From TrEMBL:
Xref: InterPro entries: HORMA_dom, HORMA_dom_sf, Mad2-like
Gene that produces this protein: LOC111598582
Domain annotation HORMA: ranges: 4-198
Organism: Drosophila hydei
This protein's GO CC annotations: zeta DNA polymerase complex
SUPFAM superfamilies (alphabetical): The spindle assembly checkpoint protein mad2
Lineage of the species this protein comes from: Eukaryota, Metazoa, Ecdysozoa, Arthropoda, Hexapoda
Protein known as: Mitotic spindle assembly checkpoint protein MAD2B
PROSITE patterns in alphabetical order: HORMA (PS50815)
Length: 200
């Protein structure tokens, strides 16, 4: 399988998971999502233009990391009320692995793992309290200093710049109290190992 094909498959999975989090947790009204069928299961994708554009730019950056064959990076989706009011964080830990071209040639196991991850997520979060109406979200990408420097000097990202974070609400919360870590699922097909976790 060619690198571009692998990246496209991996990026679609990340897009679906990101949208799934926003939909299932009710960060936005259900009316701004449209139903699609992916991995033989119904998923909901944002259809509101401004939000779609933001997510597309986030995914464009993730795509760059995948193309550059970044060995390991982490994507954090934080839901919060205000900058100091952290509610939940969702982490996608991504690590490049050696793919066997003959293994799972038709992506059956890959799709099954992702379908399982989506159902597990919905099941795990249904017991969490409903979010406040003022809930917002932000996306952070945890990567190396070298990757950040390269990204910040790339002309194609000047219209959607990434800023270096001085610490997240989760880090502040960790200093004050304990938090729970709920493993969702692990996908290790198509040259990418991806593990999903919830911190709340």
């Amino acid at each position: 399988m060619e690198l571009e094909e692998m990246v496209a498959i991996q990026l679609e999975a990340i897009e679906v998971i990101l949208n799934h989090i926003l939909y299932i947790r009710g960060v936005y009204p259900a009316q701004i999502f449209k139903k699609r069928r992916v991995y033989n299961t119904p998923v909901f994708i944002v259809a509101f233009p401004a939000l779609s554009s933001y997510l597309a730019n986030v995914l464009k950056t993730v795509q760059q990391h995948l193309r550059k064959n970044t060995a390991q990076f982490r994507m954090e989706i934080t839901i919060y009320g205000n900058e100091s009011d952290h509610m939940e964080s969702y982490f996608l830990e991504m690590q490049r692995i050696q793919a066997d071209p003959a293994e799972d040639q038709y992506l059956m196991e890959y799709e099954q793992q992702l379908r399982t991850a989506l159902y597990k997520f919905a099941d795990r979060v249904k017991h969490l309290p409903k979010l406040d109406q003022n809930a917002k979200f932000k996306v952070r990408i945890h990567t190396t200093q070298a990757a950040f420097t390269e990204l910040s000097h790339d002309a194609q990202y000047q219209e959607f710049p990434w800023l270096q974070s001085n610490g997240s609400p989760l880090q502040l919360k960790q200093q004050q109290q304990k938090f729970s870590l709920l493993p969702l699922s692990r996908v290790d097909k198509v040259g990418l190992r991806m593990e999903a976790h919830i911190h709340n």
